[in-house]
Design a protein that fits this description.
Largest sheet: none
Oligomer: single chain
Helix content: 55-70%
Number of helices: 24
Pfam family, one: PPR_1
Family: Belongs to the PPR family. P subfamily.
Protein name: Pentatricopeptide repeat-containing protein
InterPro entries: PPR_P_subfamily, PPR_rpt, TPR-like_helical_dom_sf
Keywords: Repeat
Shape: flat
């Protein structure tokens, strides 16, 4: 299958130093820390620390929703685990997904990841007592992947879901793929991708978009381009999110002909490019010194009904400043300000230094005023250049400059 071959080929060409050894075998179930129940000392630890937990010591029958309220109101997460262990020994104990999710979320916020493993040990032992939804495991993967930085553990959770009678959907599967792309672990992507059938996951457009993004970021543009042909095979349609990474990849390599061919392909397939797509092209052209083409593209996007944003005008402004076209840049800056946009500090700095080179004192005075109005403070080096420009304009001597700087 071409899709599998492309992903495997891309992985073999990526940077091996960036990959990590991740245990993601589909045959391995979720592994849990084996800690004994005597890790936490008597109920004295929680009973003396948080009055919210006092009801757990009473003999009143507690409904599951009452238990949730008790644990929700606990502020110190260090009391939660011993309190849970005490509750689990009560006759009215009822394990629920809601309670486990609450404990995991509180421990996640406190970055108490070992305690999350303790909760998951209980989940495994009592998995026959309650049903677990995909949202439960998705949230767990999010905590391990985004908060704990334990991507291998998040992968174990994904492959362990069937052990609990819960099969992942493309939502959970794509989360792991996106996690690997964000971490630039390109070598690991194909290992997860080829396991989709074993997990009962059907490849969708979102999955293909993630793969294309990963291939583009790893520099394998040819393989990413070929993946466009997989959309109709999967009964899906590419979107603007499909083409933007490809266009960015070709722009970064200076291959603008290929980038504009993709833009034309989008139009033929009736996929409207958005502001981000145009900004990628304008920024790429600007970095290569092709300012005029960037300005033409700005006008083109307006004609197509695509509204430029501050980032669009900022890129054009940078291009004009790079080419020392200061008067045009000042006009662009004036328009941006009149539309309620705030030019960047760097663009103000470039503008001031450019005007200093041409001794354009009046224009520089306007720029400095706008700069200060937007909360930017010129640094000492910039003020020196401004003073030299003013003195030079008035044919004063170096002694006059020294006299000015004494104030």
């Amino acid at each position: 299958m071409i899709l599998r071959r492309l992903v495997v080929s891309a992985a073999s060409n990526s940077n091996p130093r960036r990959s990590q050894t991740l245990s993601s075998s589909s045959s391995s179930a979720i592994r849990f820390l084996s800690s004994s129940s005597d890790r936490y000392t008597p109920s004295q630890r929680y009973s003396s620390g948080d009055d919210k937990l006092a009801r757990l010591r009473h003999k009143d029958w507690l409904a599951p929703n009452e238990v949730l309220k008790i644990f929700e109101n606990v502020k110190d997460p260090s009391f939660l685990m011993p309190a849970y262990q005490h509750y689990s020994k009560r006759k009215d104990y009822q394990p629920t997904e809601s309670l486990y999710a609450l404990l995991i979320n509180k421990f996640g916020e406190a970055k108490m990841f070992d305690e999350i493993e303790e909760v998951m040990r209980a989940v495994k032992l009592e998995k026959g007592c309650c049903r677990f939804s995909e949202d439960f495991f998705y949230n767990l993967m999010r905590i391990y992947g985004n908060l704990a930085g334990r991507i291998n553990r998040a992968i174990e959770i994904l492959f362990g879901m069937p052990d609990f009678g819960c099969w992942p959907s493309p939502k959970s599967f794509n989360f792991i793929l996106n996690l690997l792309v964000s971490a630039k672990l390109f070598d690991e992507i194909h290992k997860i991708f080829v396991s989709a059938p074993k997990l009962g996951v059907e490849i969708d457009a979102c999955c293909l978009n993630i793969l294309i993004k990963g291939l583009c970021e790893s520099g394998n543009l040819d393989a990413a381009l070929q993946l466009l042909d997989e959309f109709p095979k999967q009964k899906s349609r590419p979107s603007v999110m499909t083409f933007s990474p490809l266009i960015r990849g070709f722009c970064n390599k200076g291959k603008f002909d290929e980038a504009f061919k993709l833009l034309e392909r989008m139009e033929k397939e009736r996929i409207e490019p958005d502001t981000i797509t145009f900004n990628i092209l304008i920024s790429g052209l600007r970095k290569k010194g092709r300012v005029e083409e960037g300005i033409e593209l700005l006008e083109r996007m307006k004609l197509k009904g695509c509204q430029p944003n501050p980032g669009t005008y900022q890129e054009v402004l940078y291009g004009l400043l790079d080419k020392k076209r200061n008067l045009e840049a000042k006009e662009m800056m004036s328009q941006m300000i009149s539309w309620g946009m705030r030019p960047s500090f760097l663009s103000y700095k470039k503008m001031v230094l450019g005007l200093c080179e041409t001794n354009s004192v009046e224009e520089m005075d306007w720029v400095l005023r706008q700069m200060v109005n937007h909360g930017f403070v010129p640094k000492t080096g910039m003020w020196w250049k401004v003073l030299r420009c003013v003195v030079s304009k008035n044919n004063d001597s170096q002694a006059d400059l020294d006299r000015i700087t004494d104030y």
